[in-house]
Structure formats: structure tokens, C-alpha cells
């Protein structure tokens, strides 16, 4: 996707969050914000790639503060809390063992902010309510056909915390006899899952974990490694989690692949692009 005018406030909100996590130095924060303002002033146009712009902003923050992983504590906490609730989620989903419910659980993981939970959070109610909600775009029948037709799958994960819920969908997909490759970021960016985060929750039980060769917001085709490009090109069946990967993958030609986007739309620009409302859950096959 290209930049929308609505991306501007989002870039700045996210930059402020990352800066607060990276440093307590108020004067440095102002200096960095000025650098970000100048960067956006020269790179904010209708032809600009939103993922690459966001990635550059976070690169500025990490380099100027010296903090290579501002979200490190949040990522660890997110995985820890999600793992705590995993047995409960399994019990819920076993009552209706359909592929669609496993897809919903994976998308619910994309919705929930595990790091924000307290002991009083009723996650059981949150999950049950979401399971009752219909997918706004529902290509689950096509997904099942793809799972039966292909012998291998590339699964692009998104954030920590939600990767714990991805395990359930991966286990379900593995039952179709698929050889699964799981792609993570090579360097920290936001709360996206890297190799150590994936290994910490046992994602390697469900497939081979590979790095994309970059630490970018979502998927940025110009930044991935040659090794990952070979893997990507070699797969005809791909599942992509989250908005960032949707933004990046819709920028390239994937007409030779059966590519499925699993996400909850949490911004107006993506909602408009997909033709859905905010907070709608989507399982969309590329066309």
C-alpha cells in the first residue's frame, strides 16, 4: 500500500511510543522528533511506500538512542501472558474443531494486546465473543482447498503474543500433511516476532523457522534477503498475518501464488483498501 494522509498521525504516534520505550532523555526525544519531521517532510507523498517509511523512522530512533530493541520487555511479557491462556483457548476451540475457528483464534491473537492484560481481564469472554463474530471476508473454504492441494506452506507471522495463538492454527494446518516454513523478522522492529521470540514459545515444533533478512515494519520487498526471496518464490501457498504484511505484499505481484491474509483491520486506510469496517476480522485470498 501507498501512504494515505491518515498515516501521518500514526507515524508520529508510533514514534512517540517507541521513543518513550527507548530513552528517558527529553532533549534527545525532541532532537529525534525534529529529524523525523524533516524526514517526513521530504518523503510523505502519494507514491511513498508506507512500510518502508515506518521502518526508516524506527531505524532513526534505534540508531539515535542506541536502543536496538525498544519493545523487548513488552515482547517477552506478551508471549508470557499468551502462553498462560493457551490451555484455556484450546479448551474453547475443541468444542468446535473447525478450520474457521482456528483461523478466528489466529486473528483474535492479532486483536488482543497481551501486554495490557491484568489479572482481572476476562480473556475467556473476549475470545468467546470474537468466536461468535463473523469473518467480514471469509475465504476459509478456499484456504482448506489450498491446504489439501499443496504439500508445503510459508507462514509469515506478525507480533509476539499472537504467535502463541498462531500455534493452534499451525497445528491444524499441519494435520493436512503440510511441510510448514515459518518466517520471522531478522532484527527487532516494534513488537514483531524475531527468532528468539518464536523459539521461546516453541514455534519450531510446527515447522522450520527462517528469517526474512530484514527488520522492517511488515514486508518490504526491497529489503528481504536473497535467501528468503528464494524461499518466498519457491512457495505457492502462503499465509500472511497482520496489517504490515498486507501493506507490503499488496505492493508486489503475487498472482502466481495462493496467498491468504489473516488480520483484524485496525486502521482506516486498510479498512478502505479492503472494503471493510474498523475491527473487522478478515481471511482474504489474493486475486
Spatial sequence of strands, sheet with the most strands: 1-7-6-5-2-3-4
Bulk shape: globular
Stated plainly, the CATH topology of the largest domain is called Rossmann fold
Radius of gyration: 18 Å
| Unreliable residue stretches | none
Number-wise, the strands total: 7
Distance between the termini: 16 Å
Q: Any idea what the CATH architecture of the largest domain is? A: 3-Layer(aba) Sandwich
What percent of the residues sit in helical stretches (DSSP H or I)? 40-55%
CATH top level label of the largest domain: Alpha Beta
The number of helical elements comes to 12
Number of discrete domains: 2
Overall average pLDDT: 92
CATH superfamily of the largest domain: Uncharacterised protein PF01937, DUF89, domain 3
SSE class: alpha/beta
Oligomer: single chain
Verbal overview:
Helix 1 (7-22) packs antiparallel against helix 2. It is globular and about 55 Å long. The chain folds into 2 domains: 7-65, Helicase, Ruva Protein, domain 3, CATH 1.10.8; 72-285, Rossmann fold (3-Layer(aba) Sandwich), CATH 3.40.50. The protein is built from 12 helices and 7 strands. The protein starts with 6 loop residues before the first helix and ends with a strand. By secondary structure, it is an alpha/beta fold. The protein has helices at 7-22, 26-43, 50-65, 72-94, 99-111, 123-132, 140-149, 162-174, 195-200, 226-234, 243-249, 268-274, and strands spanning 137-138, 152-156, 179-184, 208-211, 237-241, 258-264, 281-285. 52% of the residues lie in helices and 12% in strands. It has a 7-stranded mixed β-sheet with strand order 1-7-6-5-2-3-4, with helices on both faces.
